Amino acid sequence: MSVFALLRVTPVTEDDITADVAAAIDALEDHDVEYETTPMATILEGDDVRELFAACASAHEAVETAEIQTLVQVEEKRDTELSTDDKIDAVEGELGRDARSQRE
């Protein structure tokens, strides 16, 4: 089984959110998930949906602002073993190039 999530933890504050976002990402280390952070969200990959949701909850709880918004989108492949790299490789194979802008 493969489980993927898009996680976006957004502290709602007038202050700089960098430390809060870093705390959310650091909380993922306590869980059996792989993750990669992008400028807009963090992508998680795991084998167990409960562990993945627990990781998302830990990230949410790690933020100490008075208001926080957390978005979680989950995809579970129950009968297929697939990684995020496999998904990206499939798209790049179809494109015939890297799935990123060619602009400099």
UniProtKB/TrEMBL annotation:
Domain (Thiamine-binding protein): residue spans on this chain: 7-92
Source organism superkingdom: Archaea
GO cellular component: cytosol
Region (Disordered): 76-104
Entry-linked PANTHER family: UPF0045 PROTEIN ECM15
Family designation: Belongs to the UPF0045 family.
Protein name: Uncharacterized conserved protein YqgV, UPF0045/DUF77 family
Organism taxonomic ancestry: Archaea, Methanobacteriati, Methanobacteriota, Stenosarchaea group, Halobacteria
